[in-house]
Amino acid sequence: MSGLLAGKRILVTGVLTEGSIAFHAARIAQLEGAEVVLTGFGRLSLIERTAGLLPKPAPVVELDVTDQEHLDGLAERVRAAFGDDGGGGAGLDGVVHSIAYGPPGAFHFLDGGWEDVSTAVHVSAYSLKSLTTACLPLMGPRGGSVVGVTFDATVAWPKYDWMGVAKAALESTSRYLARDLGARGVRCNLVAAGPLRSMAAKSIPGFSELADDWHTRAPAGWDLNDPEPAARGIVALLSDFFPRTTGEIVHVDGGAHMMGA
Known about the structure:
The protein is of the alpha/beta class. It contains nine helices and seven strands. The model has no long low-confidence stretch (mean pLDDT 93).
């Protein structure tokens, strides 16, 4: 089989519906030759139905990234999902982290309490470290590629508030993982995607205010309903075409990030 990811095994988190970046990353990874396993939590029946819409239906492993027991058992369950008997070798070549959540209080910067803020940081940022270290036993001596999804945290966005802080923490976490895991052959990079009308966007108060003028700010254009450009960026970073790129943030946002106004 040919393709950018021919012969590779990829774990993709964050697939809920077919409108998500994660779904399209899984879809394109399969089209590029990869075997894919998905993780999900809380709505497994929906995720399993969505997994059936991929070019090749993918197994789904339950994972709550805030539950240490789930993390401790992840490697074994991923091996089983790929059909391994537990006896041999590296079982994973890439990981896609597409997990973020903020309670309603996280979208009120001055009034947001620590309980809500800590949840947003734990799920949206610390989980990158938790997920990556849980997958390390599967990567073996040849290492692999970890790719996360962020929303440019270099500026303050309307309405995004503590989720913006969580994304800044995610971006810093990626750099530290790149530093500490480079010697093990593990690269860690992020794709900074433009806004998309997804299930996740529905939980962001004032999303329309943030997103509606994006197509006028993005010189290369931007479609709020098209996750594929961001998904292609993820797949490219999972591939061997970036063997010495790590700690990087690749913007897939139509160029809006570089515009002053």
